[in-house]
Design brief:
This protein has 672 residues and is α+β, with helices and mostly antiparallel strands. The protein contains 15 helices and 31 strands. It has a five-stranded mixed β-barrel. It is elongated, with a radius of gyration of 36 Å.
Length: 672
Amino acid sequence: MATGWLRGVVKEVGSGDSVVVVAAASSSFKTIPPQCHSVRQEKRLILSGIVAPRLARRDGSSVDEPHAWSSREHLRRLLVGREVTFRVDDLIRDKGIEFGTVFDSGTGENAAVAQCAAGLARCKDDPKTQQNFEYFGQAKAAEEGAKKKGVGQWAFSSDGGQGVAREGGPKRKVLQVGTGEGRVSPEDLVAKSSSPSGGPKTRLGCVVESVGNPHVLRILLKPVKGETQKREFVSATVFLCGVTCPLVQRRRQDQDQQPAGPEPYAVRSKVFVENAVLGRDCEVCFEGLDKYGNVYASVYTDKQGTSLAEQMLELGLAKTLGWSQKMLASLQGSRQRQAERKAKDGREGVWHGWEPSSDGANGANGAGASRRCLVTEVVSGDTVVLLDVASESGSATLGGEERRVHLASVRAPRLASRQRGESQGEPWALEAKELLRQRLVGREVTCVTEYERKVPVGGGGGQQQQQTRTLTFCTLTYEEKGQGGQAKTVNPSELLLARGLAQCQAHRSGDDTASNYDDLCDCEQRAKEQKKGIHGTKKPSGGAARVNDLSVNSSQQKSRQFLPFLQRGDRVGATVDYVLSGHRFKLLIPKQAVAITFALSDVRCPARGEKHSDDALRFARVHCMQRDVEVEVDGVDRGGAFTGRLLLQQRGGGGGGRRVDMAEQLAAPGVA
């Protein structure tokens, strides 16, 4: 039942005498429509008239016949990715097995004859084959030629005889990845790419055996140099590191549910991957493991360093995956993000209908706007409170509202929360907050809103509509004098990451990020390499020191016990921890490890609820909150609060760094 001659492209070679051919019309990924719901049609053919040595089963229940692997490799290198002309010669209907003749369209070479000529297959000697196989004579002549030359399985033995020769050395052994005897652990597999000196990771040779979803590959790792005599191969399933793709095969949420079809662009993405790497000699670099023990790797199709993931991103056939992208070197992660950005700008593939989010840098609500602000408070290592600065006067606008913003694409360790009943925060949380306090409080900064996020507010359970609040994420910069007196721009986010006091946020693909996200990732990578802060094993040196808090449930008698220690010198260094009112503060005195309530002795501001009380409180917050100050303690009032003068150091500008009396500052605008 021979068919006519057809044209196709060899997608895969399963053994030394079987190939998988797809139609030439569907061989290019560009011809696959975005909403394709079925994979392309293909034919699995067994070459007519010949039989090749059998490969071992994947379950390990059998072993390779002599020269089976060499036969498969010879046919794979000969045909994979090549355009061929083929026909179906015979069919076993009950088993669905098709026999066919395959010619390389470029060279005109018959695949069956080529295998016999290399001594890696033999002709079937039954009369039916001799009668029905049109090219039996050519194949038999090629087989006889291989016998005379002693090539392949017809190699001459040591005693001068000839027959189906055994391969020298140990047989090929395929190891599976997993736990247990005779398996390779995922950790050992990743270690194969690691450099002992900490340098660039090593690429290893492999062959891609199959493609599941576009970003999931089953590879056969070849023996590394120095171990080729062992002939030990490793079969492993790997995920492409840094990317995720539309799914061809989706899991069913329910056993009774019908299988879901492929996602848009899933089939196109899979066809591209199959054309690029399936059955090809590639290089793989193992990057790391996820919490489930899955192996993540980078696959390279050439020596130029362009990874398969990067090619898919540039064509819009994949999206970046932030958490797995952290396994990559900073330069490689940056190239992936640039490739995705290029696909977004060109509306390629999955980004065909993409538009910037209305909450993003190009959206509404003031996003993307640049403004001058004064930092009045540092809430945590990635959250600050800002007050707009009037452009006409260059001073803080007391009538404006303070607003809380978060550093874009940065996450610092969390402080302890009383609401959650935590007594201790995450390591390095205090150090991150202190760095921002020293660098930012009281300083004018340029604030650029990058994006906004709506997050749920707790307490909206049941059938009630859940309430949300909007968080604003910004990039802050400020100017300071560098070497030679020249001004330089400082980004506190980069400073935190470079010192290992924060991490880059692992954004989902399509989410807005900080405009300098690549620079942030570079800073984090340098901190990782130097094992700084949270990336090292060293614990914070300071930690949460034990402080005697006299501001809570204090009395005059208890405060007087500490009065001599605070009056021992002329002035005592302190930090304003909180502003209670215009003239009343909570101070932290590190030298004495004590927190006190301090009131100005020379002035009084309006009490809460009185006229101008809010103005006095705002003025005190702007000028004193979280500042380093000096106090002169005169005594203790009846409530146990210490009284005296508070001297504030003005930051740069016309103040020249001199200290001014806070009482005079309050009296000047008439708020005290």
